[in-house]
Amino acid sequence: MRPDEQQFLAANLTHWDEVAPIHAASAFYDVAGFRVRPDSLKPIEVAEAGEVRGKTLLHLQYHFGMDSISWARRGAQVTGVDFSPVAIDQARTLAREVGTAVRFVCSSVDDLPRHLEGLFDIVFTSYGVLSWLPDKQRWARTAAHFLKPGGTFYIVEFHPFAAIFDSGPDGEAMRIAYRYFPDGEPQVFEGLGTYTDREALLKHNRTYEFPFTVGEVLTSLAEAGLRIEFLHEFPHSTYQFLPFTHQTGPDEVRLLQHAGSVPPLFSIKATKPV
Ligand SMILES: C[S@@+](CC[C@H](N)C(=O)[O-])C[C@H]1O[C@@H](n2cnc3c(N)ncnc32)[C@H](O)[C@@H]1O
């Protein structure tokens, strides 16, 4: 672990504690709609993660619990993990409101083996998780650690190649703004608000993110002893996480220009050998 890592994670934690209530009140997450129809999962993960009914599922970085609750309502016995104490309170309240049992654990992903016992049939994580974790090999070892032999790991995540672009001056054109290959330093973002409200004036508005390549993620999972079942790359996203995109259908967001040229999402499924 590099000496400044704890400092980066502490700054990120104060940021996530601050934005969790903003997100829960946002149109982006539509918690009011979720209370009426508690299912936030997107077709990609539902189709690819496989049957969850009757299985134990560990959800890494659940935010304030919507996806964890959704998997539980599909019949999984869910344990959710996130490092934000504010988010865990929100998650527990939401689970109670919709009458769904989920065990929520407050821990950083890297510390989880010290805070949680047991093995799971499925380890699941999704959309906006990896850039917060400084060491993808450590993350992969943690995911593998919690899988039963024969268990399934599944991730669907924003593609790091799409993350190299930003909008040009006209707001719509794409230009290369960031490197694809990590240089060992975190990317520092400041004063960007948050993805549900770019104008939000935050007290904790400096975050540290850790770039990664798809190859690094795949290789880390393989080195952790998992057998890769597939790596899928998608020509569309489910969330509008880039400014130069538009909604083209339910759960489908595409680039305004060059649609099909850049993969906004990838997914990986892997199994732990018996
Ligand atoms: C973008 S959100 C995940 C979004 C989730 N897919 C959703 O839409 O609800 C990222 C989450 O990672 C959590 N997080 C960031 N760094 C973490 C860490 N080191 N350990 C555990 N959780 C972390 C944050 O608290 C936040 O809830």
What is the CATH H-level superfamily? Vaccinia Virus protein VP39
CATH architecture: 3-Layer(aba) Sandwich
Hey, roughly how much beta strand do the residues contain?
Answer: 25-35%
Helix and strand string, N-terminal first?
A: HHHEHEHEHEHEEEEEHEEEE
Counted beta strands: 13
Name the CATH class: Alpha Beta
How far apart are the first and last residues' alpha carbons, in Å? 31 Å
Oligomeric nature of the chains? single chain
Number of helical segments with 4 or more residues: 8
Question: Sheet with the most strands?
Answer: 7 strands, mixed
Give me the secondary-structure category.
alpha/beta
pLDDT < 50 stretches: none
Please give the radius of gyration in angstroms.
Answer: 18 Å
